[in-house]
């Protein structure tokens, strides 16, 4: 496995477990971490033995935000000319699923990266927030848009305007996270969930992710049409024949990835 300055990466069977590892800064997201994460995701995407990734942090912090010390002295011209944060878009283009396993603080960019993942499993210790307003700025990695889509205008607006944190129970009620798990079991449960996903037919994994994401990018009629076309397309795969035959024969499918 490659070594990274800001990440620990291990393979657990078909699951790539990526742990953010800048404990001295509560996993604040700096340029090195983005570069390491994109490199790790490229390895994950290219490795046919890997079906799903889990992105996690420490018990105290998933990530406490973008690195404030890296941004403090920057001016508008630097931020705009370098299109600061645009590199994160590449992370969202990962085609295989990525689960965020959030324990402790997911603030600012930390909350935004969790929301870039396909779904969030939260420890009961998790705290989500967009406190950028307290720094005189706004979210900059998509947080205002993804949070509003995830929890609706009222909560998103309140959180962005006050900077208050949501605990795990509120985040689950609001639909920001799919499930809350006791903190001690978070990573194991996330890896188990990821292994379940990785055991599905590879083309169906890609298609399901792509079509659910499409719901956020388009209107209902176009989204339903897109879903139906991808669904039709899978009937050209060997794994559709295998999956349906296996059901009829009362056995598990043996996937070929085509
Ligand atoms: N950037 C850089 N360093 C950070 C950081 C961040 N976002 N968050 C924490 N750290 C550093 C602290 O400076 C501290 O370093 P030193 O020991 O060198 O002083 C170390 O991590 C430990 O942090 P604290 O001592 O503050 O820990 P705490 O337990 O007292 O508080 C906390 C925890 C409430 C999360 C607090 O650290 C905090 O409020 N962090 C900042 C949260 C924040 O504002 N995030 C948004 C950042 S802006 C952003 O993300 C923009 C965007 O849209 C992408």
Topology:
Elements (H helix, E strand, L loop, with lengths): L6 E6 L2 E6 L10 H16 L5 E5 L4 E3 L4 H4 L4 H6 L6 H5 L5 E5 L2 E3 L1 H8 L2 E5 L3 E3 L13 H9 L1 H10 L3 E2 H7 L4 E3 L4 H13 L3 H13 L5 H15 L3 H11 L10
Parallel strand pairs: 2-3, 3-5, 4-6, 5-7, 6-8, 7-10
Antiparallel strand pairs: 1-2, 8-9
Helix pairs in contact: 6-7, 10-11
The structure holds acetoacetyl-coenzyme A.
InterPro entries: ClpP/crotonase-like_dom_sf, Enoyl-CoA_hydra/iso, Enoyl-CoA_hydra_C
Family: Belongs to the enoyl-CoA hydratase/isomerase family.
Organism: Sphingomonas abaci
Model description:
Its EC number is 4.2.1.17. Could possibly oxidize fatty acids using specific components. InterPro entries: ClpP/crotonase-like_dom_sf, Enoyl-CoA_hydra/iso, Enoyl-CoA_hydra_C. Belongs to the enoyl-CoA hydratase/isomerase family. The protein has 2 domains: 7-199, Alpha-Beta Complex (2-enoyl-CoA Hydratase, Chain A, domain 1); 202-249, Lyase 2-enoyl-coa Hydratase, Chain  A, domain 2, CATH 1.10.12. The chain is built from 12 helices and 10 strands. The protein has helices at residues 31-46, 68-71, 76-81, 88-92, 109-116, 143-151, 153-162, 168-174, 186-198, 202-214, 220-234, 238-248; strands spanning 7-12, 15-20, 52-56, 61-63, 98-102, 105-107, 119-123, 127-129, 166-167, 179-181. The strands form 2 sheets. Strands 1-2-3-5-7-10 form a 6-stranded mixed beta sheet, with helices on both faces. The chain has a 4-stranded mixed beta sheet with strand order 4-6-8-9. Helix 10 (202-214) packs antiparallel against helix 11 (220-234). The longest helix is centred in the first third of the chain and has 16 residues, at 31-46. The chain is globular. The structure holds acetoacetyl-coenzyme A (CAA). Acetoacetyl-coenzyme A (CAA) is lined by residues 25-26, 28, 64-69, 105, 107-109, 112, 131-132, 135, 139-141, 143.
């Amino acid at each position: 496995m490659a070594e990274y300055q800001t990440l620990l990466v291990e393979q657990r069977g078909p699951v790539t477990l990526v742990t953010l590892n800048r404990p001295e800064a509560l996993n604040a997201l700096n340029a090195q971490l983005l570069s390491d994460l994109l490199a790790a995701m490229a390895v994950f995407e290219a490795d046919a033995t890997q079906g799903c990734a889990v992105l996690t942090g420490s018990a105290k912090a998933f990530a406490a935000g973008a690195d404030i010390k890296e941004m403090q002295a920057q001016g508008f011209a630097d931020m705009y000319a370098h299109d600061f944060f645009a590199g994160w878009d590449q992370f969202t283009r990962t085609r295989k699923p990525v689960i965020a396993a959030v324990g402790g603080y997911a603030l600012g960019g930390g909350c935004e990266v969790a929301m870039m993942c396909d779904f969030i499993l939260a420890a009961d210790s998790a705290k989500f927030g967009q406190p950028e307003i307290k720094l005189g700025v706004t979210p900059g990695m998509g947080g205002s848009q993804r949070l509003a889509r995830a929890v609706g205008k009222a909560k998103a607006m309140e959180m962005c305007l006050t900077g208050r944190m949501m605990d795990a129970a509120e985040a689950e009620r609001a639909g920001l996270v799919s499930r809350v798990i006791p903190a001690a079991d978070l990573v194991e449960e996330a890896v188990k969930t990821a292994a379940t996903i990785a055991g599905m037919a590879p083309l169906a994994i890609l298609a399901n992710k792509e079509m659910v994401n499409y719901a956020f990018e388009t209107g209902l009629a176009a989204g339903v049409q897109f879903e139906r076309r991808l669904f039709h397309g899978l009937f050209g795969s060997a794994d559709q024949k295998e999956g349906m035959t296996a059901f009829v024969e009362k056995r598990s499918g043996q996937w070929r990835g085509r």
